[in-house]
Amino acid sequence: MLRFFPNMNNINLQNIQTELQRMPAALQKHIQTWKETLQRSSIEMQLISELWCKILEHEALLINAKTFRQMRSKEQRMSTLFRSLDKKQVVMQQLLTVLQSCKLQVDSMRRRVRQWVQDDAIKTGYIVWELTASMFLEFLEFFTLRFDYEWEIKEMVVLELRRINSHYDLDILFLAWSEQRHAGGSDFDQQLKDFYKSVGVRPCRAVRNPIYNEDYNTEFH
Questions:
Q1: 3-state helix, strand, coil in the chain (%, to 5)
Q2: Fewest CB within a 10 Å sphere: which of 49, 85, 127, 189?
Q3: Over the stretch 95-128, which tens digit does the pLDDT of each residue have?
């Protein structure tokens, strides 16, 4: 352990060293949770899209209904569809909350590490494998920024799910959720690859399900 931070001479710096050496695993967990949550949400968004297609179809049928019986039947069917939609929207809100937790935890680590690297003994020291504290801060800043931007888009989509008026609106929201404009793409994937390489971990071996299998308290303050 001393080869990583050879200049650690007081208890406070030793405590920081311990925290730093646990943080990369925490970041892996949050990244994996982010990815798994988006995979789950993609399934939910597909179901929501199908519900809205049925709702829009029945709205057109309701407008063209020629008898009270037809009108009543379509209204009842639409009421059932909207109840199903409400349930799905609750699920999407829960998934959005998980994404928010991930980005807040990563940002919390970023703020702490940014403060710690002002000490030269920490800034130039290795945390694990090939990862220095200053390198880790760069990764945290990158992922924090990308998760923030991506989450804002996801939040907008969830807020608009009950306000769709046409298939065009539906397509726009579905695309906005499906595309990973900020937490995806070649530059994001390269940063992810570089991070995993720096800690000596293959991406496919990243720790899974931190929300339900937490072995490290990442509630940094």
A1: 75, 0, 25
A2: 189
A3: 999 999 999 999 999 999 999 999 887 888 889 8
How far apart are alpha carbons 6 and 88 in whole angstroms?
Answer: 53
Asked if residue 45 lies in contact with residue 160, where contact means CB atoms within 8 angstroms, the answer is no
Cβ–Cβ < 8 Å for 108, 221: yes
Token pair listed for 159: 């807020």
Token duo for residue 64: 């063209």
Separation between Cα atoms, residue 44 and residue 90, nearest integer Å: 11
Of 74, 50, 46, 42, nearest to 60 by C-alpha is 74
Domain boundaries, the chain: 24-201
Tell me the one-letter amino acid at 170: L
Select from 188, 200, 214 the least CA-distant residue to 35: 188
Dihedral sign (CA 90, 92, 98, 104)? negative
